[in-house]
Design a protein that fits this description.
With 553 residues, the chain is mainly beta. It contains three helices and 26 strands. Strands 3, 4, 5, 6, 8, 9, 12, 14, 15, 20, 21 and 26 form a twelve-stranded mixed sheet that branches. The longest helix is centred in the first third of the chain and has 9 residues. The chain starts with 8 loop residues before the first helix and ends with a strand.
C-alpha cells in the first residue's frame, strides 16, 4: 500500500490504520512511500512494536472492570477443537449493561463475577464471556488461576484476540466438579494493557467460578480492581505552548509545524484555521506570553485541563537560589464550549554573575490563563548574592506560583553572610522556596509538589518536587508526564556543593564559573541557581521552563 509523500512515521502508521481492509496489529506491512521528491523506497514495519501506542492527537482511556455477557447454553457442547467460535454466533441474554448490572472486578465467585446476575449453584446450562484488558501493575512474571464447576478458559495477551484451545493461558475445560488450574508464568511489562478473555460454562448440578491473579511480588487475589479494564477509547489531547514550534520538541516527534498542529501540538506560529480539534485564531506573542483563541469543534464535556505557568529563573551569583516552579492547576470534568482565550507564559531569565553590578537575582516566570479558570502564577525568581549595596530586593527568593530559593547574603558588610529567605508560593498552585545558608549555599526553588529544601553548611539545597500527571496525559508531555519542579540552589566550590532538581523540568544548581542549565521547556520547571566567579558578568542562573496548557477529552 502507498502512504503518500510524508516521511513522518506517525502519518505513515495513521494511513495504514485507516485502511479499510481487515488487518491484524501483529501483521507485517510492506510499505512503499516517497520522500517528497521522486524517490520511491520500500520497507517493512511490524505493527506489533506499536501495541498500546496512539496515532494522532490523543491517548487511550479505559473504564474500570471487565465487560461480560451471559448465554443460554454451555459452550462445552461445541467441543474444544479449533478456535473458540461458539460465542461469535450467539447473542448474550444479559450483559454488564443490563439493568442493575455493571462491569466486574471481583471474582470471588460467579455471583460477584456477574454483578449478581447468577448465584452460586443457582442455574443450569449457561455460559459467560468476560473481555477487556489486563493492566500489569509492574514488570514481572504473572500467574493466573481459575477454579470452576464446570469448564473455564482464560487468555491473556495477543492470544485473546484469536483464542483457540491450543493457546489458552489457563485451560480448565471439560465437565467436572470444582477444579483448580494454574497457568505457567507469563512475562508482562508494567503499565501495559494486555488483551484479556475468559469463558465459563455450566452443564448441570453445582456451578461456580473463581478467578485469581498474582505476580512475583504479590499473593493470589480475587480482587482485579487495579488490573481489570475495558471500553478502551481514544482521547484527544491538545497542547498549547509558549513560543514557536521546534522540530526538536518531544524528541523530534514532528518535523513540521503543520504536522504538529494536525496532531494537536499548538505553537505561536501554528497556522490559523480549522482542525479536527477545533478552530484556531491567529496566535500572538507579546511580553513573554503567547495568546491563542480556540473554539472547540463541538461542545466538550468531562474534559481534563492542566495549566502550568512559566518557571522562575535561578539566581546568578555566589550560592544563588533556585527558581521556583510555575504555578500548576489541574481541573477535571470541565465543560468547554464557545471561544476560549488561552495565554501561556514563558519562563523567567536566570540572573547574571557577580562581576556585573546589577541585581543578580533570577527573573520571575510569566502567568498562564484560560477563560473561566483561575490564573496560574509564574514561578518566583531565585535570590542571589550581589555586589550592589542594597540587598533587599536581591537576596530573598521571589514570591510566585512556587517561591524562589533564597540567595546567600550580599556584598554589603552589614548583610554579608545573611541567609536569604525563600519566596512564598501561591496556595493550591505551588510551594515556598528554601532558605539559603550563610556559607555561600543557595536555597532550593519551590515545586508544585513540595517546598524547596533549605541549604545547609556545605550544600546548596535541592528544588521542590513536581507533580505527576502521566496517568492522565501520558508520558509524552512534560518531563515524562511530570511538571513544575523547583530549581536547585547554587554553591561556591570549596564551600558548598550545588543542589539538584527532581523530575518535573527544573534544573540543578551550579558552582563557580559554570552557568546552570536552563529548565526544560513546556514544563514550568524552575531554573538552577548559579555559582561564583568574581569577574563573570554573563548570565549564570538557569532560565525557567516555559509553561503549557493541556486539554484532554
Amino acid at each position: 500500500m502507498s502512504v503518500g509523500s510524508s516521511p513522518d512515521l506517525y502519518n505513515i502508521l495513521n494511513t495504514i490504520l485507516q485502511d479499510t481492509a481487515p488487518h491484524s496489529m501483529s501483521e507485517l506491512y510492506n510499505i512503499s512511500f516517497s520522500d517528497g521528491t521522486s524517490t520511491v523506497s520500500s520497507g517493512t514495519i511490524s505493527l506489533s512494536s506499536f501495541i498500546n501506542k496512539i496515532i494522532g492527537t490523543g491517548m487511550y482511556s479505559y473504564s474500570s472492570g471487565f465487560e461480560w455477557g451471559y448465554y443460554d447454553d454451555n459452550y462445552h457442547d461445541g467441543g474444544y477443537s479449533g478456535n473458540q467460535t461458539w460465542f461469535d454466533t450467539r447473542t448474550p441474554v444479559y450483559t454488564h449493561n443490563s439493568p442493575g448490572r455493571s462491569r466486574v472486578t471481583d471474582f470471588t465467585n460467579i455471583s460477584t463475577a456477574s454483578s449478581g446476575q447468577t448465584s452460586v449453584n443457582g442455574d443450569e446450562t449457561y455460559s459467560y464471556l468476560w473481555t477487556g484488558y489486563f493492566k500489569a501493575p509492574i514488570t514481572s512474571t504473572y500467574y493466573f488461576k481459575t477454579r470452576s464447576d464446570d469448564n473455564s478458559h482464560m487468555w491473556v495477551g495477543t492470544s485473546a484476540l484469536n483464542p483457540s484451545y491450543s493457546n489458552e493461558t489457563v485451560d480448565n475445560g471439560g465437565l467436572h466438579g470444582m477444579q483448580t488450574v494454574t497457568s505457567a508464568g507469563v512475562s508482562l511489562t508494567g503499565g501495559v494493557y494486555y488483551d484479556f478473555r475468559m469463558t465459563f460454562g455450566e452443564q448441570g448440578g453445582g456451578d461456580d467460578l473463581q478467578a485469581q491473579w498474582r505476580n512475583n511480588s504479590t499473593s493470589f487475589s480475587y480482587d482485579w480492581s487495579t488490573v481489570a479494564f475495558s471500553n478502551r477509547q481514544v482521547s484527544t489531547i491538545i497542547a498549547f505552548h509558549y513560543g514557536t514550534f521546534s522540530s526538536s520538541d518531544y524528541s523530534g516527534l514532528y518535523s513540521t509545524v503543520s504536522a504538529a498542529a494536525n496532531a494537536g501540538y499548538v505553537y505561536s506560529n501554528t497556522p490559523s484555521g480549522t482542525y479536527t480539534w477545533g478552530t484556531l485564531g491567529t496566535p500572538s506573542t507579546v511580553s513573554n506570553q503567547t495568546t491563542y483563541t480556540w473554539t472547540p469543534s463541538s461542545s466538550i464535556t468531562g474534559a481534563d485541563v492542566l495549566m502550568v505557568a512559566g518557571g522562575g529563573g535561578g539566581g546568578g551569583s555566589v550560592g544563588a537560589g533556585g527558581g521556583g516552579a510555575g504555578g500548576a492547576l489541574y481541573y477535571t470534568n470541565q465543560s468547554l464550549s464557545g471561544q476560549k482565550t488561552i495565554v501561556v507564559g514563558n519562563g523567567g531569565v536566570g540572573g547574571v554573575g557577580f562581576g556585573q553590578q546589577v541585581e543578580n537575582d533570577g527573573g520571575d516566570g510569566y502567568d498562564t490563563t484560560f477563560t473561566g479558570l483561575t490564573t496560574v502564577i509564574g514561578g518566583g525568581g531565585g535570590g542571589s548574592n550581589t555586589n550592589i549595596t542594597d540587598p533587599t530586593t536581591t537576596r530573598d527568593g521571589h514570591t510566585g506560583g512556587s517561591g524562589g530559593g533564597g540567595g546567600y547574603g550580599t556584598f554589603d558588610p552589614a548583610d554579608y553572610g545573611t541567609d536569604g529567605l525563600g519566596g512564598t508560593g501561591t496556595s493550591g498552585q505551588g510551594n515556598d522556596g528554601g532558605i539559603a545558608f550563610g556559607g555561600e549555599a543557595g536555597g532550593g526553588g519551590g515545586g508544585a509538589g513540595s517546598t524547596g529544601s533549605n541549604a545547609t553548611d556545605g550544600a546548596g539545597a535541592n528544588g521542590g518536587t513536581g507533580i505527576d500527571k502521566s496517568s492522565v496525559f501520558g508520558t509524552t508531555y512534560g518531563d515524562l508526564g511530570w511538571f513544575a519542579s523547583g530549581g536547585g540552589g547554587g554553591g561556591r566550590s570549596g564551600r558548598a556543593t550545588a543542589g539538584t532538581a527532581s523530575q518535573g523540568g527544573g534544573s540543578s544548581g551550579e558552582v563557580d564559573n559554570t552557568k546552570a542549565d536552563d529548565a526544560q521547556l513546556h514544563t514550568g520547571g524552575g531554573g538552577g541557581g548559579g555559582g561564583y566567579s568574581s569577574s563573570n558578568s554573563n548570565q549564570q542562573g538557569g532560565n525557567g521552563g516555559s509553561g503549557i496548557v493541556l486539554i484532554k477529552y
